Structure formats: C-alpha cells, structure tokens
Amino acid sequence: MMLESIAAHDITGERTSKRLSPAPVRRTIARILKKNTLCAIATAGPDGRVHVNTAYFACSAGLELYFLSHPASLHCRNLAEHPRIAIAVFDSTQAWGRLDRGLQLFGVCREARGPAGRKVERTYAARFKPYSKWQAELDADDTAREYRFYRFVTQRVKVLDEREFGGAVLVTATIRR
C-alpha cells in the first residue's frame, strides 16, 4: 500500500501548513486497525437512503478490510447495487475532551468469492479465534451458514490522531495499489 496526496486539514477543512511523511500516517493507521475490532459501515440504497451497520473486521497490510455478513441484510443488498461505501473505525471508549483517534475509510466493497474468499476467511479466522469453532458447530439449517465474507478495498483514508498530528487535525491520503 502506498499513501499518496497526504494532506493535513483542520476541522473546518482548511489545509494546515503541517508537512507529513507517509511513515507516521501508516503507523497510526496500523495502530488504530490493530487496536479495534468493530467498524461502522455506511451504505446507500438505490433510492439514496443511507444505512449504517456495525461488524467485526479483519484487515490486510494493503488496507483491505474484511467482514462477515448475510447477503440478504440491508447493507449487503445496498452494496451489491452500490459498492462504493464508507467505513469508520474508532475506539468507542474514548472520553470527550481528550485526545482522540479514528479512521474514516472510503472505497469499494464486494463479496469475496473463490480463492480470494478463502484468503479472506483465513485472515478473519486468524484474528477471531472463536470463528472456526462457531462455524463448525452451526446446525445444517442455521441461517448463519448463509453468511458471506466481504472485501472492502480502501481508496482514500481520513485519519484523526490528535496525539500524533495535533488537536482537530485530520490527515487525508489516497491509496495507490
């Protein structure tokens, strides 16, 4: 993963004079993704109505996020029609008024099938050790057997790490693959 077009903005969107190299931005992204296991996924339906869902996620070094969900769920039906989505990752136990951290990721998400789906499942199972046992113990008629893995490919990221970059400073970058 290569970060490009790295820029720092204040909370109003005004560009700051702060110059950033890719290394601290990559470290911050990796730290936030490692520390957190839940994300919020925003999708839009064919009628333009927005929907948000939470899911456990695993990720790759290339800033791909993987989650497990039922293809008939509203967010999965939405992304089947409109694969461009946004994902937020943050620690919900942060206290207001302190130095915060979080990510907003923008990109494309599709069901992971075939060899790619098996790779996603291995990555997910490695992060969530109980997954394999849960999967093996499902009854034959359990609706959870219909769950599928989804692969989100980040195209742009917005980073908030007030400890690293300063208060109310948002760092944006595009991802080159």
Description:
- The chain is of the alpha+beta class.
- It has one domain: Electron Transport, Fmn-binding Protein, Chain A (Pnp Oxidase, Chain A), CATH 2.30.110.
- Helix content is 27%, strand content 41%.
- The protein has a 6-stranded antiparallel beta barrel.
- The protein is globular and about 60 Å long.
- The model has no long low-confidence stretch (mean pLDDT 96).
As a percent range, the share of helical residues equals 25-40%
Terminal CA distance = 6 Å
The CATH superfamily label reads Electron Transport, Fmn-binding Protein, Chain A
Question: DSSP helix count?
Answer: 5
Q: Count of DSSP E strands?
A: 8
Element-level helix/strand string: EHEEEHEEHHEHE
Task: Summarize it.
With 177 residues, this protein is of the alpha+beta class. The chain has helices at residues 22-35, 74-81, 114-127, 130-136, 162-165, and strands at residues 2-10, 38-44, 50-59, 64-69, 84-90, 101-111, 148-161, 169-176.
Which properties best describe this structure?
single chain; 177 residues; alpha+beta; Pnp Oxidase, Chain A; 6-stranded antiparallel beta barrel; 5 helices; 8 strands; 41% strand
SSE layout and pairings?
Elements: E1 2-10, H1 22-35, E2 38-44, E3 50-59, E4 64-69, H2 74-81, E5 84-90, E6 101-111, H3 114-127, H4 130-136, E7 148-161, H5 162-165, E8 169-176
Antiparallel strand pairs: 1-8, 2-3, 2-5, 3-4, 4-7, 5-6, 6-7, 7-8
